[in-house]
């Protein structure tokens, strides 16, 4: 098949960016002709298995976003702050870029807004993936955006949600939607694997040495190689968080829960809440800045537990699944798409350990209790849980199966 994969943003850093490049790689690997239409000026940094990348010009360089971050050479503004004319111009420009790439068997667009209006403007058969951030951060409670999403989705041949939670949120926000398919995101189980500690540390330090000395907010902190070598020179109980550093992600809950556990933390990510978190963090916490998969595949095996403490609904717990694939037992807040990932992993655990996969939303004491129990396990017991978590990922969320499922509605 010839697939035009539209994504309004970059190909690294956040969940939908990782999702996009993973699909491009997997579809290309299996013989499809894939063109990615996005705003990433350096796609050569990623393995897309031969997929072509096209970067369309944007009217006045305006980029609609759901959370404000810095975007090099673009004027990023919240979607809800765009005027109707600016939204129309953005959809028209991206739609024109897609039309120049036709014919195609399908246009696969990310995010209800602005993905659905852009895909509709292409004039081709199209599918839309609802990621959740657009629904919760920008569309909910804003009637004009809710109507725009509903109208554009009406023309889609398939609408994908990553969890039952996002299916409910989608209909809460835009009303009843036809042709909805629940297909979770995937994990590269060949990339995220359990690795011996010594080999993982050597590889992580070497990878960090390749980082630019001052790449900015969306890049690793300068000097990480030396910090990693020092931090992991002694083997101590270590908890890892990786994701955005914004208040909704609940990292402050984790930092408070760590007190009294005897564990240290590695906090990976970027965002406007970083300075606040650094001020709250227990002594010895390591902040790394943004890391890519090339770092994470080596960092995760050096950690004992991964925590996803979001206090705001999540479409899916991709970071929990990635940690599990690396053999690191994850603990997630028990709500939204995170709860579905936690339940899938718990199903592979012995019954006496199933409660360790999740904790009540925002409950510091409960999270602290889960961490203490996990860290008190013998190394062999904790490794066994990590391998059970990996089996859950292999069974439910490998990218090869997910990519195949997404194309099933378009198979002739």
Largest sheet: 7 strands, parallel
Strand coverage percent:
15-25%
CATH 4th-level superfamily of the largest domain: Glycogen Phosphorylase B
Residue-averaged pLDDT, rounded? 96
Through-space gap between termini: 10 Å
Count the E strands.
15
Poorly predicted ranges (pLDDT <50, ≥5 residues)?
none
- Find the CATH topology of the largest domain: Rossmann fold
The CATH architecture name of the largest domain reads 3-Layer(aba) Sandwich
Global geometry: globular
Number of domains in the coordinates?
A: 2
Helix content: 40-55%
Radius of gyration computed on alpha carbons? 21 Å
Provide structural commentary.
- There is one protein chain.
- This protein is an alpha/beta fold and about 400 residues long.
- The chain folds into 2 domains: about 1-185 and about 400-410, Rossmann fold, CATH 3.40.50; about 195-395, Rossmann fold.
- The chain is about 40% helix and about 15% strand.
- It has 16 helices and 15 strands.
- The protein has helices at about 15-30, 85-100, 110-120, 135-140, 145-155, 165-175, 195-210, 225-230, 250-260, 275-280, 295-300, 320-325, 335-345, 365-375, 380-395, 400-405; strands at about 1-5, 35, 50-55, 60-65, 75-80, 105-110, 125-130, 160, 180, 240, 265-270, 285-290, 305-310, 330-335, 360.
- The strands form 3 sheets. It has a 7-stranded parallel sheet with strand order 3-2-1-6-7-8-9, with helices on both faces. It has a 6-stranded parallel sheet with strand order 12-11-10-13-14-15, with helices on both faces. It has a two-stranded parallel sheet with strand order 4-5.
- β13 (about 305-310), α12 (about 320-325) and β14 form a beta-alpha-beta unit.
- α7 (about 195-210) packs antiparallel against α8 (about 225-230) and α9 (about 250-260) packs across α14.
- The longest helix is centred in the last third of the chain and has 18 residues, at about 380-395.
- It is globular, with a radius of gyration of 21 Å.
- The N and C termini lie close together (about 10 Å).
- The model has no long low-confidence stretch (mean pLDDT about 95).
